[in-house]
Amino acid sequence: MGKKLCWVIIVLTIAVNVVSLHFTIESYYGKHYEHVYLFTGIACVSIIVAIITFFRWKKLEYAE
Fold first, then answer.
1. pLDDT of amino acid 34
2. What residues contact 50, with CB distance under 8 A and at least 6 apart?
3. pTM
4. CA dihedral 6, 12, 15, 17 (to 10 degrees)
5. Which of 3, 20, 27, 62 could form a disulfide with 42 if both were Cys (CB 3.0 to 4.6 A apart)?
6. CA distances, 11 to each of 21, 25, 29, 33, 59 (Å)
7. pLDDT in tens, 14-39
8. Residue 12 has what pLDDT?
C-alpha cells in the first residue's frame, strides 16, 4: 500500500464518518433510536480504519 493510497483511504473514511455522524444526529432528533446505534457504530469503525491507515502512512513516510 503506497502513501497516496493511504491518504485516499484516510480521506474516504473521514468522509464516511462525517456522513454517519450526520445520520446519527438526524436519527436522534427523529426519534429513530435503533438507527443511532447503527450509524454511531459505522462512524467508530471508520475512525478506527483511519487511525490504522494513518499509522501505516507514518511508517511508510518516515522509513525513507
1. 87
2. 9, 10, 13, 14, 17
3. 0.84
4. -80
5. 20
6. 15, 21, 27, 28, 18
7. 999 999 999 999 999 988 888 899 99
8. 96
